[in-house]
Amino acid sequence: MVRRDHLERAVLESLWDHPKGLTAQEVVDLLADRQLALTTVHTVLDRLRAKDMVLRERDGRVYRHRAVQSREELTAQAMLSVLQDSADHRLALSMFVRSVSAADADALRQALDEPQAGSKTSRLGRRRRP
């Protein structure tokens, strides 16, 4: 049996690869190796919509579905969620930074040095430091 979170992730991957959106049938076709029923894909898309992860737009007689967030935004949101669960944010961040590659550490430094587009709230809805 396929785990629901794995199936949701596979559907999201399909949507990320097709930013203009996909119909449920197109998702079924793209995930043909999984042999999914159309009703299963509809259910997964409905669940993702309920989680505000997918938008549905009418396109003639069918609906097109698009991911609300990019892969990177969803990854950042997951990282923030894990950090918020930590009892000691500073220690968790310190340990994280020590465990990343030199290239990733450089990318973090560069991201921290970038100007913050005038907003104190990130795209992920968290308050940024002043």
Averaged pLDDT: 89
Which range best describes the helical content: under 10%, 10-25%, 25-40%, 40-55%, 55-70% or over 70%?
40-55%
Low-confidence stretches: 126-130
- What is the CATH C level class of the largest domain, in words? Mainly Alpha
The end-to-end distance, rounded to whole angstroms, is 48 Å
How would you sum up this structure, described in words?
The protein is mainly α and 130 residues long. The protein has two domains: 64 residues, Winged helix-like DNA-binding domain superfamily/Winged helix DNA-binding domain (Arc Repressor Mutant, subunit A, Orthogonal Bundle); 37 residues, no CATH class. Strands 1-2 form a two-stranded antiparallel sheet. A hairpin with a 2-residue loop joins β1 and β2. It is elongated and about 50 Å long. The C terminus is likely disordered.
Produce a short descriptive summary.
This protein is mostly helical and 130 residues long. The chain has helices at residues 4-17, 24-30, 38-50, 71-84, 89-99, 102-113; strands at 54-59, 62-67.
Topology of helices and strands:
Elements: H1 4-17, H2 24-30, H3 38-50, E1 54-59, E2 62-67, H4 71-84, H5 89-99, H6 102-113
Antiparallel strand pairs: 1-2
Helix pairs in contact: 1-3, 2-3
